[in-house]
Design brief:
heterodimer; A: alpha+beta; OB fold (Dihydrolipoamide Acetyltransferase, E2P); 2 domains; six-stranded mixed β-sheet; 8 helices; elongated; B: 2 domains; globular
Chain lengths: 358, 261
């Protein structure tokens, strides 16, 4: 049985459904990211978990116990807010001790625990500072220490790193993950940053319009997205959208809306007339001067050198296609205006259902 | 250069316009002459006379007493209103806001008259409670204005953080909300105090017979020809209120610097 389990969670604001029958399970000690664009319901999910808001349906279970009606202050969940929400009139020490004081611990114990927490987040020496006397990264650490020191059953992070600048953010990501592993605390992290989600999580739940589109490990979600939204939200992807025109063995002919036709190989069974989106990641799109059976013809529109990779923007099949090539030293170079052939390994093309919309 | 001189001149004129009358009043409190006449001759005689004038002192005490209770009630009401209406829908918020703010637009004259008529209708004599109610009604909007400004820029998640750390509503108020809004409560209370202390019209309608407040006392002594004792008491009040404002500004200033990121 999983540690935390959410069943059919639903939330409405003024009649508008923001969370539509969400169900998910989390193992003890694992790190789950809720990833999605703004308005997808990820923050609402977190707030329902924390207990700041009441749901309109469904249950939240922790360790087999339904916690829907337990008030926030009896849930024992630690939360780190986007704005950190440190108590401005208290010092670092007082901020961290606050949760322990609510737990009626002795002064001596509190002092020890606070000192340990401060050491863990590397803020030794700053105990007497007020929040406004510290940098964003330091405030972030205080917020994390304050949430962890109460030994919560669940750690909730609400876009907690997004206020930091890029370099600090990457540092904090690593540190956050190390601390989380060391403490072994079950963590739910809300973010709109796909890169952050990919680096930090054991599992990612991609959300859209109040639903979970897909949940899985970073690799599962990136390599085998279940639908067009997930494929386009995590990383980049080339889509060829059209209907299946012909089938001979495992070679299918796809007719795009603009009338162009291309062939692809798939081991799955697709019906004639079915609407699909042939999906290939840019880094798996090969560029060559040589034609082969399944390759498609194109013309280089633009070349961007990005150091470790070169990105080609190619016009093919009446649309723009991205191809990303690793720069390994002795690669074939292509220039603007060159005629090229795009190819990919059959195992690297994904065929996703397409609802016919843009 | 000319522009600079002109702008200084303009500022000086505005300042003279605003503060010259007050300066004259204060100066005359220390003038020997009974008729505020020149030449100026320094004397403390009006302050001495004031110390013997029990009527004026009693009126001042009454005013302070009334204004202090008004101030305290207004702060408590305003804080409760602001905390309570924060999480409600915008409709209810707008309703509460307009009901509380309405007395700002009703002339005090009409407010006083209607409260007096209410007393008559209830068959009651003028009494302290009704006077106090009147003062609270007209002072509350000012306390609410100051407190709501502070509450609006308070980060709600700070409170939520307190709950998530295991503190219940009361502890959260005591240890997190109160320290953050106490400067605004102080300022709001002082504002309400000043509005009440200063009020003549409403008090005139509602004051129980036989008692008096300072504004009423000053007004009636003007009718009968007044002595610079009035200047003396005005000067004392002015100096005291400036001192209080100074203290509050100092508290607010330093705590604002501490609180607002």
């Amino acid at each position: 049985m999983s540690f935390l389990s959410i069943r059919n969670l639903t939330k409405k604001y003024d009649g508008v459904t923001v969370l539509d029958n969400i169900s998910l399970d989390i193992e003890k000690g694992s790190f789950l990211s809720l990833l999605g664009p703004s308005g997808c319901g990820k923050t609402t999910t977190l707030r329902l978990l924390a207990g700041f808001e009441k749901c309109d349906g469904g249950t939240i279970e922790v360790n087999g116990k339904i916690i829907n009606d337990i008030p926030v202050y009896n849930r024992n969940f630690g939360m780190v807010f986007q704005s950190y929400a440190l108590f401005p009139h208290m010092t670092v020490e007082e901020n961290i001790a606050y949760g322990l004081e609510q737990r009626k611990m002795s002064k001596k114990e509190i002092k020890e625990e606070v000192a340990k927490a401060i050491e863990m987040v590397k803020l030794t020496g700053l105990e007497k500072r007020k929040p406004k006397q510290m940098s964003g990264g330091q405030q972030q650490r205080v917020a994390l220490a304050r949430a962890l020191v109460i030994k919560p059953d669940l750690l909730l992070l609400d876009e907690s790193l997004s206020a930091l600048d890029k370099k600090l953010r990457v540092e904090m990501q690593v540190e956050l993950r190390q601390i989380q592993k060391k403490v072994g605390i079950t963590t739910i992290f809300v973010t709109h940053d796909q890169e952050e989600a990919l680096t930090l999580s054991d599992k990612i739940a991609v959300m859209k319009a109040g639903r979970i589109m897909q949940m899985g490990t970073s690799e599962e979600i990136y390599e085998t997205p279940r639908n067009i939204f997930v494929a386009s939200f995590l990383g980049q992807a080339n889509f060829f959208k059209g209907s299946i025109e012909e089938k001979s063995g495992d070679i299918y002919t796809l007719k795009l809306r603009n009338g162009n036709v291309l062939k692809f190989k798939s081991h799955k069974d697709w019906k004639i007339g079915q609407l699909v989106a042939l999906t290939i990641r840019p880094e798996k799109t090969g560029v060559s001067r040589v034609e082969n059976e399944l390759s498609i013809k194109g013309k280089v529109l633009f070349v961007t050198y990005v150091g470790d990779t070169t990105v080609y923007r190619i016009e093919s099949m009446g649309q723009e296609v991205l191809a990303k090539k690793q720069n390994s030293g002795n690669d074939e170079k292509f220039n603007i205006g060159d005629t090229v052939y795009l190819n990919w390994k059959p195992e690297n093309n994904l065929v996703l259902d397409w609802d016919g919309e843009e | 250069m000319l522009k600079k001189i002109l702008s200084w001149f303009y500022t000086a004129v505005v300042f003279i316009f605003l503060y010259a009358p007050i300066a004259v009043l204060m100066a005359m409190a220390f003038n020997e002459s009974q008729y505020n006449a020149l030449p100026f001759k320094f004397s403390m005689r009006w302050f001495e006379a004031l110390s013997q004038n029990t009527r004026l002192i009693d009126a001042t005490k009454n005013s302070i007493y009334l204004a202090a209770i008004t101030g305290v009630i207004c702060v408590i009401l305003a804080t409760a209103l602001m905390l309570g209406s924060r999480d409600t829908s915008s409709k209810i918020k707008a309703l509460v806001n307009s009901v509380v703010m309405l007395p700002l637009t009703i002339p005090w004259l009409i407010m006083g008259l209607s409260l007096l008529l209410l007393l008559r209708a209830l068959g009651l004599d003028k009494n302290f409670v009704m006077l106090l109610i009147g003062h609270v009604v007209i002072s509350l909007p000012y306390a609410v204005l100051i407190l709501s400004a502070r509450m609006q820029d308070m980060d709600k998640s700070i409170e939520e953080a307190s709950y998530s750390l295991g503190a219940n509503e009361w502890t959260t108020f005591r240890r997190v909300i109160f320290p953050m809004i106490s400067p605004a409560m102080l300022a709001g209370g002082f504002m309400a105090f000043m509005i009440s202390f200063d009020n003549f019209v409403l008090s005139y309608f509602l004051i129980p017979t036989g008692t008096t407040t300072l504004p009423i006392e000053i007004y009636s002594s003007i009718k009968f020809g007044f002595t610079p004792e009035i200047n003396a008491i005005s000067t004392i009040i002015l100096v005291l209120s400036l001192a209080i404002i100074g203290i509050i500004a100092a508290i607010m200033g330093s705590s604002l610097k501490n609180l607002i990121r």
